[in-house]
């Protein structure tokens, strides 16, 4: 008689089944074979010297992708949200005021995270698809005197690429750190961490970088470092404590000691994706994403669809938002395309649910052939998806 009260799960005795999907939504994107195979290399120890060399390469790759010379640069062991939490948990102390630009879901998330850790989150709010002017931000900075201002560069829920020029200097005039989310834009739209005076910048692995989800590049300026390392209280998270992580990533000049077991395979894959970015060149990549986005946008307009972001200069090249065509249910369209093309495109997220369809052409997926395929799938869906009776 077995002592077990929970039987063997029958489904686990069947082979793993993973369908092929063309991932043309806002992420994750498809992982090219070269990155998949890098992630499939045999495991080594997280504290082996070869692993530290790989981490050093990752750090250099992130410095290149971010265009920064910041010493405190690394990949967080976790998804984009973990990097968002690492930024806020380390740079802000309980009771301090932060100013959050909310023009889509990511600002809402940043405000939520700030409140959970006991910060006073002031929201600067715009409708989905809108941007903030420097004057509006300056007014809020002078009114609230926050220690940090959060803005999303590539707002993937609305399709906006928020202008960043002048923001860093403006924040610094008010003794405030600038925190920027580039999860959906890094590698596909220009960003210059040092030149634009961004204090904390983070991203994710699963979008333009085409690595599996689960690692998240992040970097801190000298100004951010000073604030973080002169805190009065410990950050609320041990796992995301930048004191420990700086050591793990060889950023503090001290011998590395065990903090946590990093995602070894995820780091192999991330190194490979940063190697590909280095081979292709950032500027080439930006240009290519811009050209493919324009091609897609023209094709969408030819289909009679309307782009959600009216101002061409504010459209995010990596994730395109399409206004849900009148008389259609967006769920029918995405379901039709999944069923008939095994292709993911998605509806909106957070405040943009019901307003938009979202198409991502990112990194390896950013090709004319994929743009053509998504246009064909959408044209087909428009013909076949019954118009609602409203
Ligand atoms: N910020 C932006 C702009 C994103 O697009 C995403 C992911 N869709 C995130 C943050 C969160 O990243 P993750 O899902 O990897 O936690």
From TrEMBL:
InterPro entries: Aminotrans_V_dom (IPR000192), Aminotrans_V_PyrdxlP_BS (IPR020578), PyrdxlP-dep_Trfase (IPR015424), PyrdxlP-dep_Trfase_major (IPR015421), PyrdxlP-dep_Trfase_small (IPR015422), SP_NH2Trfase/AEP_transaminase (IPR024169). Keywords: Pyridoxal phosphate. Its cofactor is pyridoxal 5'-phosphate. The keyword rRNA-binding does not apply. Pfam families: Aminotran_5. Belongs to the class-V pyridoxal-phosphate-dependent aminotransferase family. PANTHER family: ALANINE--GLYOXYLATE AMINOTRANSFERASE (PTHR21152:SF40), AMINOTRANSFERASE CLASS V (PTHR21152). This is Alanine--glyoxylate aminotransferase.
